[in-house]
Amino acid sequence: MRRAAAVPLAAAALLLSGCGQLGYLSQSLSGHLSLISSARPVEDWLADPALKPALRERLLLSQQMRDFAIAELHLPANSSYRRYADLKRGAAVWNVVATPELSLQPKTWCFPVMGCVAYRGYFDRGAADAYAEELRREEGLEVIVGAVPAYSTLGWSNWFGGDPLLNTFIAYPEGELARMVFHELAHQIAYAADDTTFNESFATAVERLGAEAWMQQKASPQARQDYQRGLERRQQFRALADATRRRLQEVYAGSGDDVGKRADKARVMAEFRADYQRIKTEQWEGYAGYDDWVARANNASFALLAAYGELTPAFEALFERLGRDWPRFYAEVKRLAALPKAQRRAELAG
């Protein structure tokens, strides 16, 4: 898939987590500071006559999107995404997500300020893989390690130049680049310290609505056509994955014993992969962009996917109810984020 996650990883907040996680905190802080310090203002890159034309075009496009985000989407007008860094690697961080064998409830990690989140991020792939293996071995969990192209510091990094554009996503197709920038900026609007699904579903709603506006107003006919084709594939895949997740939930909530549940789970997963291959062959002309996700899919994969879309329709409905007024929408989301989780979910659903 386009990304395993683009979740907020506030390294500064992690520093408050206490002595029991000093090794993890050290890599979080040093990795974040290394990423921030490697970024330079976009205008400095553009002033370099040796800059490759393809990168020049993408940086210019990113700044047009950044201006659009401020003027049209009312996203924060600050220093984020006005600098660029080449990390010399394929991901900004790697997130570890874990669930039990017969459950879609993700393991959470809790920190002051940030609250509890359903992932643990590493700036080194080897460290992420090692921790994932520890969870498998010692806790018997199903785990994925997802490459994350970008993350948000919730606005805290604006004191140091803001969250930067990165080589990990700058070459995305136009619509996908817009979605990435709008998603990460949305995390600076509102954040519920105990609700990953609320945070990610809100940012996903902003990215979808914002990218739709961008493509309609700014993109070329060819770019709009390419984006629409990708959007249709995304929707088809999401429908298949959501249906599979619901079937797995029914299996795990059933009254049978664990042996029977494992057999039913295996059957559901086999049917999911067969249905995917059919859609890929019959409708996508062999498009293979989801192959890796499907090959590695497990409970953790479906749990993470739910976090990015479970509440998105509710946020989009809220946007419509508020007259598609961005400031009113953001004000209401901030109000909801400040409520206790149960009340927040109930009001959003209503």
Automatic annotation (TrEMBL):
Question: What is the superkingdom listed in this entry's lineage?
Answer: Bacteria
Q: Which GO terms describe its molecular function?
A: aminopeptidase activity
Per its UniProt record, what Pfam families does this chain match? Aminopep (PF10023)
Keyword vocabulary terms for this entry:
Aminopeptidase, Hydrolase, Protease
Q: Give a yes or no for keyword Hydrolase in this entry.
A: yes
What is the protein's name according to its record?
Aminopeptidase
Which organism's genome codes for this protein?
A: Roseateles violae
